[in-house]
Amino acid sequence: MTTLDAALIVAATMLAMEGVAWSSHKYIMHGFGWAWHRDHHEPHDRVLEKNDLYALVGAAMSIAMFAIGSPLLMGERAWEPGTWIGLGILGYGIIYSLIHDGLVHQRYFRWVPRRGYARRLVQAHRLHHATIGKEGGVSFGFVFARDPAVLKRDLKAQRQAGIAVLREALED
Q1: Continuous segment of H or E residues that includes residue 165
Q2: pTM for this entry
Q3: Where are the alpha helices (DSSP H) in the chain?
Q4: How far apart are CA 57 and CA 39, in angstroms?
């Protein structure tokens, strides 16, 4: 496998992980996995949340792919792309942690972006937290954020349809 092939696999995996994260956030975390995710949507003063267990799931996925790609563990059955997929999952996890936990929830550092894409990420995720409970909601991704004005319209439509209960009225 060439270096270019490996780099393309890492990049493609990192992009694909946003889709995995979006769908698992919408259908698992806001579905049958709500018991782990609920405390992320509720005020608390703990350093860790049950929701942090999802990071262990992501780490297990990455470690499993590293193992599948390892000749030391798998011998001749090793599948080299597994190493690069594992690295892509790890890279996405680092980016997720810096953006979601660091920038948006300020668990590692304090910085409030005033403009640009970083501000859009923060606004989109705050709109995700605008609902009470697991029903409804917007912006289930973590790295790609839709226009906050569109997200506000979606939330208002969900409220009017009885799908979502909002924490507070959205500004027009």
Answers
A1: strand 165-166
A2: 0.91
A3: 3-24, 34-37, 53-68, 71-74, 81-96, 116-128, 148-160
A4: 17
